[in-house]
Amino acid sequence: MKNECPSVKYAIIGNSTAAIAAAEGIREIDSSGSLMIISREDRHTYSRPLITYLLGGKVDESKMTYRPQEFYQGLNIETRLGTEVVSVEAGEHRLKLSGGEELTYEKLLIATGGRPVLPPVEGSDLRGVFSMTCWDDVEAIRSYIKTNPVDRAVVVGAGMIGIKTIEALRRLDLEVTALELAERPLSMALDETAGQMVQAQLASNNVDLRCGTTLEKLLPAGEKVAGAVLSDGHKFACQLVVFAIGVRPDTSLLQACGAKIDRGIIANQEMLTSLADVYVAGDCTQSLELLSGQSMPIPILPVAYRQGRVAGANMAGGQETFNGSLIMNSISVFDLPTISVGLTAIDDQDSCGYREMVWRSENPPAYRKVIIKDKRLVGAVLVGQVDRAGIFTGLIKQRVDISSIQDLLLTEEFGVLALPTEYRKHLVSGSGIEV
Ligand SMILES: Cc1cc2nc3c(=O)[nH]c(=O)nc-3n(C[C@H](O)[C@H](O)[C@H](O)COP(=O)(O)OP(=O)(O)OC[C@H]3O[C@@H](n4cnc5c(N)ncnc54)[C@H](O)[C@@H]3O)c2cc1C
């Protein structure tokens, strides 16, 4: 006799920020409905942004857990860790799992995150070539370094993941060459001045950063990587390569179901996809960017968390909405903190109506820039002194008229007390400052 297909009320694919937030959102409303988390990674939920710190020894394993060990039991969550969902049959409300098991659900959350971008470079299948998006990557790199003579590493990409990877490898005392196709590091997150400060910080930490170039091919010694050839013709020896170009929304499970997908899986404000009872949250989706008014992937942890909470609440019958987010980047480069929110630079041809204000100090190095349009703050870049980031973020998000405080924004006196009275009241009685 054929076994009956097991059934759950809520199925969540993924076990990271968006998934955990959704489980918490569900349990706020429904404390007992059966809930299953299915994850390809065979680990208790952990903080993905910390994986490079784990590699570099800046944190140990005990700091990695995103929720305590008793989390799943406490919220009555069944887990299938080390299990991949191989297909979604949305019409039948059915999942197929690796190992052949099938499962039906009433409500489904796709929280599959992003997949590393891996350019098709000759030699990228050699041993010693890695990406940097999960804990297993850390284990694999550590084990390779332990069992192979590695002096010089190449990091491809000097965006957020690349910079964090560079720092980790330097902490392991490796020589590091970093390749960045753009003219400066963190080019998507920072303006030219801030990028130059980051470049100087990398140089003073003995990082060989090469901008405006990338990897042409990798050279082998047997099965292992032994050298790199760059698009500008340079060639040098290296024994470890890490691709850290970024992630692309993992939309694969819903592609076969005919769901609406653009760069990421498309959802409405309730985080419901175009398929009945299928919700989405986190790096695999795209959503409204509040300044540009465009829908795009915003792959950062606070956005994944808020989307997950909204999706979870709605799966359990609540009525919550995710109304969009600002682009925000926060990264420390060898202890030099940097934060950017909203616009970071204005193209000359596009400068109509924008005003930039800048403050800079040489010793210690610090830089603040704000961009204003129509009496509203629309962007901020902070390096070295980032303590105003929260206030600036709130002003941008709430579209506060800053004409009365504009000239104070970059002065030493500026702080919460300088804010317009009405907005201060909102901070106290309203939702406060959020991203
Ligand atoms: C190195 C690094 C540093 C970062 N630093 C920062 C930072 O400083 N600040 C910040 O805000 N953000 C940072 N981020 C981004 C942040 O980690 C992500 O925005 C966040 O993890 C997204 O969470 P998520 O739940 O959407 O997806 P993910 O964290 O990507 O998790 C998705 C999970 O789903 C699993 N999965 C996928 N497909 C399947 C399937 N078919 N079956 C079963 N399981 C599946 C995956 O294996 C994975 O475990 C960083 C990311 C990386 C990689």
Give a description of the structure.
This protein has 435 residues and is an alpha/beta fold. The chain contains ten helices and 24 strands. A hairpin with a 4-residue loop joins strand 5 and strand 6. The structure holds flavin-adenine dinucleotide.
Largest sheet: 7 strands, mixed
What share of residues are in beta strands? 25-35%
Low-confidence segments, given as residue ranges, are none
Helix content: 10-25%
User: What does the radius of gyration come to?
Assistant: 23 Å
Number of strands: 24
Ligands in the model, by name, code or SMILES, are: flavin-adenine dinucleotide
Question: Counting H and I runs of at least 4 residues, what is the number of helices?
Answer: 10
- Give the structural class: alpha/beta
Roughly how many Å apart are the termini? 54 Å
